[in-house]
Design a protein that fits this description.
Layout lengths: L1 E10 L2 E4 L13 E8 L2 E10 L9 H5 L5 E5 L12 E2 L5 E6 L3 E3 L3 E4 L5 E6 L2 E3 L3 E5 L9 H4 L24 E3 L5 E9 L17 E6 L4 H8 L4 E2 L9 E2 L6 E7 L3
Parallel strand pairs: 6-16, 11-17
Antiparallel strand pairs: 1-2, 1-18, 2-5, 3-4, 3-18, 4-5, 7-10, 7-13, 8-9, 11-12, 12-15, 13-14, 14-15
Length: about 260
């Protein structure tokens, strides 16, 4: 079974990504081979590190248990011309997203792959426990402002057409603060029975995305990749609603059939 994910280079030979890219639904490592592509250069995965607390993506509860974070070790060092990214020690509400996932529009949802890197923006408005940040895909209307419909403070979206939501293939891709430091790792998208423009889970307007806060797993990440992957950023005054419910890299690989 072939899979496509995204990621970010954090050392000369280590890629930060999502645990569910490398595991089965129970959270067990299930990757037989992996190729990481940077522009025209490809590298093979030789080591796969999945956080021990990852429970798989089999249920909503297991997704909200967090730890959807992993590191892929490559077979050789990546050329120094390819950017390495630091992980921020603090949070930011506004973020840029990078990923190689499906493309489409907010009205239609994500519809097709073309292998191209895309960038977009959004605003984190929800904090779940200490390890997940949430955001919704707005179109400027109250009807599809799902976080507000759930009873939390939320605006109706960023001006212009840059607001985005993760789609299939964006998993593991990074989100960045204004200085280009990693805040989060794309984990999953959810719908809540309100706000979704087409009532289908397909990365359309009204759906809510969740990203793993990378620095929440700093001890584990540092033990594998070293303390130099972090950058100390002064803590900004950022307010998130507390959720009260239970540049990237193109990664391709093969998993065992379920």
């Amino acid at each position: 079974m072939r899979f496509i994910c995204s990621g970010a280079l954090i050392t000369e030979s280590m890629v930060l990504t999502a645990a569910h890219c490398l595991t089965d639904s129970e959270g067990n490592l299930n990757t037989n081979s992996l190729t990481a592509t940077f522009d025209i250069n490809s590298f093979n995965g030789i080591g796969y590190y999945v956080h021990a607390n990852w429970q798989g993506d089999k249920t909503t509860a297991s997704l909200f248990a967090g730890a959807d974070i992993a590191i892929v070790e490559l077979d050789r060092a990546v050329n120094s011309s390819i950017n390495r990214y630091k992980i921020s020690t603090s949070l930011s509400a506004y973020f840029d997203r990078a990923g190689y996932g499906k493309h489409g529009t907010g009205d239609t949802g994500a519809t097709a792959y073309d292998g191209k890197l895309r960038l977009g923006q959004n605003v984190y408005e929800l904090l779940y426990d200490t390890y997940l940040l949430g955001y919704d895909f707005d179109n400027g209307t109250a009807t599809n402002n799902t976080i507000n419909l759930l009873g939390y403070m939320s605006d109706t979206g960023l001006p212009g057409a840059k607001e985005t939501l993760a789609a299939s293939g964006d998993s593991g891709g990074p989100t960045f603060d204004v200085d280009g430091n990693i805040i989060g790792v794309s984990s999953f998208v959810a719908q809540y029975g309100v706000g979704d423009i087409d009532a289908t889970l397909n990365s359309s307007y009204g759906e809510v995305g969740y990203d793993t806060i990378a620095y929440s797993y700093s001890d584990w990440l540092g033990a594998i990749a070293g303390a130099s992957i972090f950058v100390s950023v002064p803590e900004a005054s950022v307010n998130f609603a507390l959720l009260a419910i239970g540049i990237g890299i193109y990664l391709t690989g093969k998993k065992s059939n379920p």
